[in-house]
Design a protein that fits this description.
Elements: E1 2-6, H1 10-18, E2 24-29, E3 39-40, E4 43-46, H2 51-54, E5 58-61, H3 66-78, E6 84-87, H4 89-94, H5 97-111, E7 117-121, H6 127-135, E8 141-145, H7 152-162, H8 177-183, E9 190-194, E10 208-213, H9 218-228, E11 232-240, H10 249-262, E12 267-268, E13 276-279
Parallel strand pairs: 1-2, 1-5, 2-4, 5-6, 7-8, 7-10, 8-9, 10-11
Antiparallel strand pairs: 3-4, 11-13, 12-13
Length: 282
């Protein structure tokens, strides 16, 4: 089966890794003229006008914005494409691969009776923290966030590390400690650490069995790894968000820097968030 992927951002690159072995990805398609003629892992990026000449059997629409996805579907129909079209939106609506990994990792940690607290850096409104709290009901959960969005200091570092000015759709300021606690099934287990990380690290932070690292930007990701890795017990796991993100590229750079400095191997996941795992062996 010959396949095109419409959208060469993070969603498109995730779909590329989902394709079965008996299919052939012949090209990415994008409406951005600056991407035409480039390549992603030796796969060409083409203009929409070239689609029919490739005669694909299936086109994946790999964007999560519903209006944009519908617009692309109309665009394909208007140009005369009559083959199969598949959108990632229904998959995204009905399953969460990152959450599935969290549940499997929690089961391994709990069944092996590994000791330690749990933590998250980059809590936002507490949706993912709530699931961590549910899966580890008897463990303290340390929650680190500014609760005021990105710090200007970290945004300046991001410019230097990624050689571009960050342009994000969200500033993550629409949160509060009260909103996070309202999400948690066991709020009595929560230790809230508000403010600029790593200045908010408590001196008595215990050993950790699991950490969710989701602060998006280079500096807090790097500082999070530096702070949490030494406190991670053998068998403990850090689940890193945005490792393969095409939007928050500083996160992946921070992980690669830390892994190079500490001779570690990161394990990428195939979710739409570009997540990855670090597991401490000893």
């Amino acid at each position: 089966m010959k396949i095109l992927i419409f959208g060469c951002g993070q969603g498109g690159q995730a779909v590329k890794n989902w394709l079965p072995a008996d299919s052939t990805l012949i090209a990415f398609v994008d409406n951005d003229p600056s991407k035409w003629g480039t390549q992603i892992e030796n796969i060409p990026v083409i203009a929409p006008a070239q689609i029919l000449t490739y005669a694909p059997d299936l086109i994946w629409i790999a964007v999560l914005n519903r209006e944009a996805a519908l617009s692309i579907e109309r665009q394909l129909t208007d140009m005369g494409y009559i083959g199969k079209i598949q959108s990632i939106i229904p998959l995204h609506d009905h399953m969460d691969i990152r959450l599935a990994h969290l549940r499997l990792l929690a089961r391994e940690i709990n069944e092996r009776h590994l000791p330690g607290a749990v933590a998250e850096l980059g809590v936002y409104q507490g949706v993912f923290a709530a699931e961590i709290n549910r899966l580890f009901p008897d463990r303290p959960i340390y929650l680190f966030d500014t609760f005021q969005g990105f710090s200007d200091k970290d945004l300046e570092t991001e410019k230097k590390q990624t050689a571009c000015t960050p342009s994000f759709k969200k500033d993550f300021k629409d949160t509060s400690i009260e909103k996070v606690l309202a999400h948690l099934p066991y709020p009595e287990q929560a230790i809230i650490c508000p403010g600029y990380f790593p200045e908010t690290l408590p001196p008595d932070l215990p050993d950790l069995a699991f950490v969710s690292l989701d602060p998006d930007l280079y500096e807090p990701v790097y500082q999070g790894l530096c702070a949490f890795w030494p406190r991670l017990i053998p068998g403990g796991i850090i689940l890193i968000h945005d490792y393969n993100s095409t939007q928050f590229t500083g996160a992946g750079k921070a992980v690669r820097t830390f892994c190079r400095e500490n001779h570690l191997m990161v394990i990428p996941l195939v979710d739409l968030h570009g997540s990855a795992i670090l597991m401490k062996q000893s």
